[in-house]
Amino acid sequence: MASIMRRAMRSTAGVTQKVVRVVHRAPAPIQRSVATKAAEISTYTNEEKGAANTTDYRIFFKAGAKEISPWHEIPLYTSDNCLNYICEIPKETSAKMEVATNESSTPIKQDIKKGKLRFYPYNINWNYGMLPQTWEDPAGKNEQLNGVAGDNDPVDVVEIGTGTHRSGGVYKIKPLGVYAMIDDGELDWKVIAISHDDPKAHLVNDVEDVEREFPGELTKILHWFRDYKMPDGKPANEFGYDNKCLNKEFTMDVIKETHEAYVHLKSGARPNDEKLSLV
């Protein structure tokens, strides 16, 4: 975390966020989205198993005829300084889909809470997913954030582009910034990104560009993730670094260090005390 901490002060400099009150819409009917045309990486395909809208439903990944793990076998970095990400939850849907890091081949499944399929209280307004080959180590404490440690998951992505991504789709993105969300005392990074082929992708390279091209969007993201548990009677989530979305340089340090944590876990250099699936 040392390089992340050194950049914390300068990464927030010059970023001003307009405070607005966000009024959430009434819950929309639960439905799975139909993707608009957004360029997927065609190397990877999916196979669905189990009935949809049940606890048995899974989305498996394939490269050719071979079943692969999206967490372990899809590379993080691309050859042109972008990143790969796996979409778990398409924009304007509410089913809490996630890569199952404790199951062999780590397919996507719907989270379960108290024996029932889990849904957000209202739709998420952005494509949401994870960075492959990253891991937020629950033994790695961030002393600049009062010692909070990682949440034992891959790093999350909030993709702000205009297209709708597909659950199970693999997309190339440009990282732009990151929020340090603290959820139930655990550090849960939220990388803000845009698809590399989005019509506005060439206009945004860092946090200040997002403020210019997508005015108010960062504040909406902050408020959405701060408040989404409150309808269930839970307290609001907190954010480190004075609620700021940190800049791209800081973001790339977060990604680098969480990738290194993943490599240590996968290689066996760090004991797999959490009993995660490494295949």
What does this protein structure show overall?
It contains four helices and 17 strands. The chain has 279 residues and is an alpha+beta fold. It has a five-stranded mixed beta barrel with strand order 4-11-14-16-15. The chain starts with a helix and ends in a 12-residue tail after the last helix.
Structure described in brief:
This protein has 279 residues and is of the alpha+beta class.
Order of SSEs? HEEEEEEEEEEEEEEEEHHEH
The value of Rg in angstroms is: 18 Å
Average pLDDT:
90
* Portion in helices: 10-25%
SS content category: alpha+beta
- Main sheet, how many strands, which sense, barrel? 5 strands, mixed, barrel
Question: How many individual β-strands?
Answer: 17
- Sequence of strands across the biggest β-sheet: 4-11-14-16-15
Gross morphology is globular
Strand content range = 25-35%
Measured between the Cα atoms of the first and last residue, the distance is: 27 Å
Q: How many DSSP helices?
A: 4
Which runs of at least 5 residues are low in confidence (pLDDT < 50)?
12-36
